[in-house]
Specification:
single chain, alpha/beta, five-stranded parallel β-sheet, two-stranded antiparallel sheet, 17% strand
Amino acid sequence: MPPSPYKVIYLTGPPAVGKTTLVKRLQKACAELDIFVYSELLTQHLERTKKTNLSQKKLRMNSAHIVMPEDIEKVDQFLIDETNRLRSTRHIIIDSHPVTKEDYGFRITAFSIPLLLALKPTVICMLYADAGEIIKRIAKHPKGRPIANVYETSLHCSMQANVATIYGIQLGAPIYFFNASTAVDIDVAFNKIASWLS
């Protein structure tokens, strides 16, 4: 059986690095593309199961106090099921960042190895940026994101890179790290990823 011509791209990076902006541009450029934004799926799951209205802002501000491991497992399984249902008919981008800044420090809610292998992304991509630039972006548009100092922001980015690297190694998939410090840098990432989807 020939390999599928469609890509499943796992896109990650720290908050405010530009993932959402990038995937919106890619969606406009490629008709055969579905986007799964993990935080949106998680919010929808929590609203269904906890019967409450939950904004992205509130989720970001209180994630470790609201999101339990069983919630992550349910959303992971939904994402796996939907990705495997669609992967032979269209490209998929999964926008996710399992490292979250919490009031006590950080938390990582990464895919387990069996679930990662069931998801089977074909490419791992991470956006990164200078810590000072990320802090400026969060200060300008907080949207519930906690403000961190330079050390914490750099650590957050490094931990996210570690998760991306582990994912790629476990999958035997290529890993791409894209600088997203400026609009020009984002253009480079956009052009590279768009070329895979054309």
